[in-house]
Amino acid sequence: MTPQHDAPTRLDRDLLERRSSAVLAHMNPTVIELGELFSQHGHELAIVGGPVRDALLGRVSNDLDFATSASPDETLELLRHWGDAHWDIGKEFGTIGAMRHPRDGGEDIVVEITTYRTDQYDPSSRKPLVVFGDTLDGDLSRRDFTVNAMAIRLPELVFADPFNGLDDLAAGLLRTPIAAEQSFDDDPLRMMRAARFAAQLGFAVEESAYAAIQQMAARIEIVSAERVRDELTKLMLSEQPITGLNVLVESGLAAHIIPEVPGMKEASDEHNRHKDVYQHSMTVVQQAMDLETGIGGAVPGPDLVLRLAALFHDIGKPATRKFEANGTVSFHHHELVGAKMTAKRLRALRFDKDTVKAVSRLVELHLRFHGYGEGTWTDSAVRRYVTDAGALLERLHRLTRADCTTRNRNKARRLSRAYDELEQRIVTLREQEEIDAIRPDLNGEQIMEILGIPAGRDVGAAYRFLLELRMEEGPLGEEVARERLIAWWAQQH
Fold first, then answer.
1. What is the 3-class SS of the chain, one letter each residue?
2. Which residues neighbour 122 within 8 Å (Cβ) at sequence distance 6 or greater?
3. Same domain, 479 and 431
4. For position 273, what pLDDT does the model report?
C-alpha cells in the first residue's frame, strides 16, 4: 500500500487521548490570556498544526502557531497591546508575529498568528495565492495532512479534530484532509512534505495520497527552487532521511527534484555486492550519520554537508560506466564527474555557495584514500591529502569510512586498519609541522628581495616552486629554502 519498506510508527490511541487532556490542562496561562483578548474583540483564536501534533507525540515544541478569524491588520492591533514587540514581515501571507517578556520570570514567549486562509496556485506562477478564510475548519482543511490539521480553540480549550487526525496519528499515517489530488494541486510542495514527514515521524503515506503523488509528480516543477531546497534540507536533517528519500524516488518526485539520485539505479556497483548504486548510497548515508558523533570526540549533530556528500558521492557512476573486456564494470573518474554534477544540482536548488563548494569537494575527494591501503604513502602524499581536504578533513574522514560497505569482513577490517593508520600519521605530522595550513618557508616579499625581482608572474612561479618543495620535503627553514630558491632561479635563467 505504501512505498516505505519499514512498518509505520503506531501509537496507542488511549495514550494520545490522555496526552491531549494533559496538554489542555497545562496550557500556558499567557496563551489563554491571548485567547481571551481575541475573544473579547469578537475573534476566534486557536493553536494549530505542528505544536499540537508534537504535544500529542510527547515532543517538545518551542513554536506557537496560531490561526485566527481576525484580519492581519486586526491581529497586528491586538498584538500591539499584548506583546512587548511585534513584526509584520509575513503580513502578505496573513502572518503577524509578537514577543512578550514573562511577567513572573521564565523565557520570552514568541507567537505567530495567521489569518484563516486557503492557498491556491496559479498554473503560470511559482508562488501560491493567498485567500483568507473565515472558519477554523476551513483553515484546517487546507493543511497538508490530517496529523497537522488538529487545533486547540482558545480560550475555552476545546480540542478540534474535524479530519480525524488523532486516529491517523495513532496509525502512523499521512493522509490529506481533503482529496489528495486537490490538496497537491493547491500546493504541490505538500507532496515533498509527505516524504519529509515520513522521514521525521516514521509515518507511512496513505495509499490514495501516494497514488496522487505518483500521478502528479511533475506538478512539483511549478514550485520555486528555494521552497524545494528548504523541504529537502529538512528531510536530510531528519532522523530517518533514507525513508524520505525512498518516498521521493519511488513516487517519481525525485526525478523532478534530484534526478541524479534515482539515476543511480541505472548503474551496477562495480563490486556486485549491492543491489545497485542507489542502495549502496543509502547505506553510505546511514553509515555517515552513524559517524556524525563518532570521530574526534565531537558531537556536531546532524551534518547537512556530510549527508548531502554521502547521498551524491556516486552520482557520477551512470555517466562513467564502462563494461570491460574481462566482464567487470568500471567507473573511471566518476568522482570528478560526480563533483561537477553535484555542484550543478545544488546550484539549481539555490543552496548557498559554501554548501555547494563543500559538498562537491567532498564528492571529488571521496576516492582519494583508496590507494593508501594498497601501498605506503609518503609523508608528501599525506600532506597533500590534508591540504586538499582543508577544513573538510574531518568530514572526509567520516565520508571515507562510511563509503566502506563491503560484506567481506576481512576486507572491511583491512580498510579500517589502513584508515586508522592514515589518521595516526596525520596526527603525528600535525605534531611535527603545521600541515593544516602549509605555506612555503619564504613569503612573496622575501622571494622578491632574494631574487631582486618585482611583483609579477615570476614571483608566483617561485612561490609555487617553494610550496611544492614544502609539500614534498616538509619544513626546510629559511636558510635552506633560500639556497634551493636561488638554485632553482639559476636553472630558470
1. CCCCCCCCCCCCHHHHHHHHHHHHHCCCHHHHHHHHHHHHCCCCEEEECHHHHHHHCCCCCCCCEEEECCCHHHHHHHHHHHCCEEECCCHHHCEEEEEECCCCCCCCEEEEEEECEEEEECCCCCCEEEEECCCHHHHHHCCCCHHHCCEEEECCCEEECCCCHHHHHHHCEECCCCCHHHHHHHCCHHHHHHHHHHHHHCCEECHHHHHHHHHHHHHHHHCCHHHHHHHHHHHHCCCCHHHHHHHHHHHCCHHHHCCHHHHHHHCCCCCCCCCCHHHHHHHHHHHHHHCCCCCCCCCCCCCHHHHHHHHHCCCCHHHHCEECCCCCEECCCHHHHHHHHHHHHHHHCCCCHHHHHHHHHHHHHCCHHHHCCCCCCCHHHHHHHHHHHHHHHHHHHHHHHHCCCCCCHHHHHHHHHHHHHHHHHHHHHHHHCCHHHCCCCCCHHHHHHHHCCCCCHHHHHHHHHHHHHHHHHCCCCHHHHHHHHHHHHHHHC
2. 129
3. no
4. 42
356 and 219 part of one domain: no
CA distances in angstroms from 17 to 10, 163, 286, listed in the order given: 14, 16, 34
Domain boundary among 243, 259, 288: 243
Pairing of strands 322-323, 329-330: antiparallel
- 179 and 291 inside one domain: no
Residue 207 · residue 53 · CB < 8 Å: no
Run means of pLDDT, 10 residues per run, the chain, 493 residues:
53 70 71 92 93 82 84 92 86 87 78 83 62 88 94 90 93 95 93 96 95 97 95 96 97 97 75 68 94 62 94 91 76 88 97 97 90 68 83 90 79 78 79 67 83 84 81 79 84 81
Q: What pTM value is reported for the model?
A: 0.81
CA distances from 401 to 332, 367, 441 (A): 21, 11, 34
Cell of residue 144, nine digits: 497538508
Instruction: Examine the domain organization and report whether 113 and 206 are in the same domain.
Output: yes
Instruction: Pull the grid cell for residue 3.
Output: 512505498
Same domain, 271 and 184: no
pLDDT of residue 60: 65
The CA angle 33-68-192, to the nearest 5 degrees, is 120
Let me know if residue 61 belongs to a domain: yes
pLDDT for residue 263: 92
5 in a structural domain: no
Considering the domain architecture, whether residues 427 and 402 belong to the same structural domain is answered as yes
Task: Please give the residue range of the domain that contains residue 383.
Answer: 267-437
Residue 458 is predicted with a pLDDT of 85
